[in-house]
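Our consortium's second objective concerns turning raw sequence data into structural hypotheses that experimental partners can test. To show how far this objective has progressed, the report includes one record in full. It was chosen at random from the queue rather than selected for favorable results. The single chain below, 59 residues long, was entered without modification.
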Amino acid sequence: MHAKETSLVELSDKVMQGMKKAMRKLVETSAAQNKKLVVGNKDGNPMSVLAKDLLITLK
């Protein structure tokens, strides 16, 4: 792999790690406040779920 390709892969990995960390923090904060979040189901349709229930699926 070329240096440019390697740096793009590394950047992409860092962005994905940051997004996962932010998502987890959002779900944990929402669960602590007993809130709901809107997520997409397997067909891509929006649905509202308790953050506490979503937190279980992230573990």
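The partners drew two points from this record. The radius of gyration is 16 Å. The CA atoms of residues 16 and 54 lie 19 Å apart. Both points have been shared with the crystallography group to help prioritize constructs.
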